[in-house]
Automatic annotation (TrEMBL):
Organism in which the protein naturally occurs: Gymnorhina tibicen (Australian magpie)
BP terms from Gene Ontology: 'de novo' CTP biosynthetic process; pyrimidine nucleobase biosynthetic process
Pfam families to which the protein is assigned, alphabetical: CTP_synth_N (PF06418), GATase (PF00117)
Family statement: Belongs to the CTP synthase family.
Recorded metabolic or biological pathway in which this protein acts: Pyrimidine metabolism; CTP biosynthesis via de novo pathway; CTP from UDP: step 2/2
HAMAP family referenced in this protein's UniProt entry, alphabetically: PyrG
Descriptive protein name: CTP synthase
Highest taxon in the source lineage: Eukaryota
Annotated InterPro entries: Class_I_gatase-like, CTP_synthase, CTP_synthase_N, GATASE, GATase1_CTP_Synthase, P-loop_NTPase
Keyword terms: ATP-binding, Glutamine amidotransferase, Ligase, Nucleotide-binding, Pyrimidine biosynthesis
Protein function: Catalyzes the ATP-dependent amination of UTP to CTP with either L-glutamine or ammonia as the source of nitrogen. Constitutes the rate-limiting enzyme in the synthesis of cytosine nucleotides.
């Protein structure tokens, strides 16, 4: 097993996740089996109870793990399926060690950060690196490990110490450290500064790790003189300094790395049994990146949510839309609309914001209402759904978006004025969306209906079934505590809102479709989590096709994309 540790310096959010994913993609393109581990130094057990404004979206895995969004990057880039133990947190490690202490495994010993916590980290990494993540179920050959945060953070120290020890346990030919740093360019001088990188590498060396590669992030391409300066002052060869400047799309990053000789370096440094040239997989990435940059036709989608100030809050949704737009040769124009700004209360408080939000919604080619929690902004989402339904605008509702579509239909088509979800009004007289008691035992963490579940189509006359390739069932990832009330579904079906997909027992409503509408679809699951750059998610693809007016032609071609 070969281990590649990716650390970061100067600032967090520098792009370690994309770089780790890109390195994995390059090695996979050389015919190697690659897995990935993300280490988050926070004390939370998992990411499930975070606000999206803390660390971005919560990504859900097949096994129900609620994890950091970087695991979503790994899955999309490498086309693998990871497990919750591929996300290590300080909370998980300490819980693991404390449980062993209570069990008596350390009887007579003083349990300390060194060696017990550091040993637990190394043991976890070695065990998880062996777990198959590809469809062929073979053991991986390379494990890419991303250490979250920045070097010097107090909470990350035990992990840095663990890998200082681990480099000797694994042996030099099996362990490699890549350090990602920032090269800022102040506007006042326009000069690219190397001092932050020098200080960051010095701090890393002081903790016992020496970088094999220094990846320098910058706004603009870095000059050769800067590369030579970093090489000299950071004690590495010039070819060990890699530059990644801001690019038009993340699909470019593996290509930039490959152009700077990273395959040849890894082959020598880790003694890998590979050719110097990448395979067809990286050629496909090159073609995809070039195609992305040449797109001319634009499709605009309005994303109506309440976490719109930070794009990472809907990272997987954005990627799923982007994959679908690329598949049909359109450039995506994603307009984020804060759902509270569509509400009447905003018109009274700030009429300019209100009218700007509605202007965006009205000019969009399609409307998407993603998942979420809490009552704030729900009235605005209901307004957007009503607009999509009455104006025949293509619409996709995901999780809460589907539940609100049911509430909107109940209020405006069934004339149940007090229809609501028990999440927002526990005492509502018409609970069209109810909680699932078995998935809400009191604790908030990890108690939802999580992970991959089967959805069975109950009719052949379903747009989504055709988009999924006319399969009898689909398996997608879930994350919810509430569901559509199955006792009231017949009332909706009589008026044209069809529940075309159920769970395996037939009790849980999973998919809705509205009759006599170009595309009005809601799904209880989160299809964005399984979207891949070369395999777009069918519900999102359907939204883009409908928004561009090409859905019917696509279905008539037997769900084949035009060349």
């Amino acid at each position: 097993m070969k281990y590649i540790l990716v650390t970061g310096g100067v600032i967090s959010g520098i792009g370690k996740g994309i770089i780790a994913s890109s390195i994995g993609t390059i090695l996979k393109s050389c015919g190697l089996r690659v897995t990935a581990i993300k280490i988050d130094p926070y004390i939370n057990i998992d990411a499930g109870t975070f606000s999206p404004y803390e660390h971005g979206e919560v990504f859900v895995l097949n096994d129900g793990g609620e994890v950091d969004l970087d695991l979503g990057n790994y899955e999309r880039f490498l086309d693998i399926n990871l497990y919750k133990d591929n996300n290590i947190t300080t909370g998980k490690i300490y819980q693991h060690v404390i449980n062993k202490e209570r069990h008596g495994d350390y009887l007579g010993k003083t349990v300390q950060v060194v060696p017990h916590i550091t040993d637990a980290v190394q043991e976890w990494v070695m065990n998880q690196a062996k777990v198959p993540v590809d469809d062929d179920k073979k053991e991986p050959q390379i494990c890419v490990i991303e250490l979250g945060g920045t070097i010097g953070d107090i909470e990350g120290m035990p992990f840095v110490e663990a890998f200082r020890q681990f480099q000797f346990k694994a042996k030099r030919e099996n362990f490699c450290n890549i350090h990602v740093s920032l090269v800022p360019q102040p506007n006042a001088t326009g000069e690219q500064k190397t001092k932050p990188t020098q200080n960051s590498v010095r701090a890393l060396r002081g903790l016992g790790l020496s970088p094999d590669l220094i990846v320098c992030r910058s706004a603009k391409p870095i000059e050769m003189a800067v590369k030579e300066k970093i090489s000299m002052f950071c004690h590495v060869e010039p070819e060990q300094v890699i530059f990644i400047h801001d690019v038009s799309s993340t699909y470019r990053v593996p290509i930039l790395l490959e152009e700077q000789g990273i395959i040849k370096y890894f082959k020598q440094r880790l003694n890998l049994p590979i050719d110097d040239q990448p395979s067809d997989l990286l050629m496909k990435w090159k073609k995809m990146a070039c195609r992305y940059e040449r797109l001319l036709k634009v499709c605009s989608i309005a994303l109506v949510g309440k976490y719109t100030k930070l794009s990472d809050c809907y990272a997987s949704v954005f990627k799923a839309l982007e994959h679908s737009a690329l598949a049909i040769n359109y450039k995506l124009d994603l307009m984020y609309i804060d759902s509270t700004e569509l509400e009447r209360s905003t018109e009274a408080e700030n009429s300019v914001k209100y009218h700007q939000a509605w202007h965006k919604l009205c000019k969009a080619d399609g409307i998407l209402v993603p998942g979420g929690f809490g009552i704030r902004g729900t009235e605005g989402k209901l307004q957007a759904i009503s607009w999509a339904r009455t104006k025949k605008k293509p619409f996709l509702g995901v999780c809460l978006g589907m539940q609100l579509a049911v509430v909107e239909f109940a209020r405006n088509c069934l004339n149940w004025e007090d229809a609501n979800s028990t999440e927002f009004d526990p005492d509502t007289k018409t609970p069209v969306v109810i909680d699932m008691p078995e998935h809400n035992p009191g604790d908030m963490g990890g108690t939802m209906r999580l992970g991959k579940r089967r959805t069975v189509f109950k009719t052949e006359n379903s747009v989504l079934r055709k988009l999924y390739g006319d399969e009898m069932f689909v398996e997608e990832r879930h994350r919810h505590r509430y569901e559509v009330n199955p006792e009231l579904t017949h009332c909706f079906e009589e008026k044209g809102l069809k529940f075309v997909g159920h769970d395996t027992e037939g009790n849980r409503m999973e998919i809705i479709e509205l009759e006599n509408h170009p595309y009005f679809v809601g799904v209880q699951f989160h299809p964005e989590f399984s979207s891949r750059p070369m395999k777009p998610s069918p519900p999102y693809l359907g939204l883009l096709l409908a928004a561009t007016g090409t859905l019917n032609a696509y279905l008539q071609r037997g769900c084949k994309l035009s060349p």
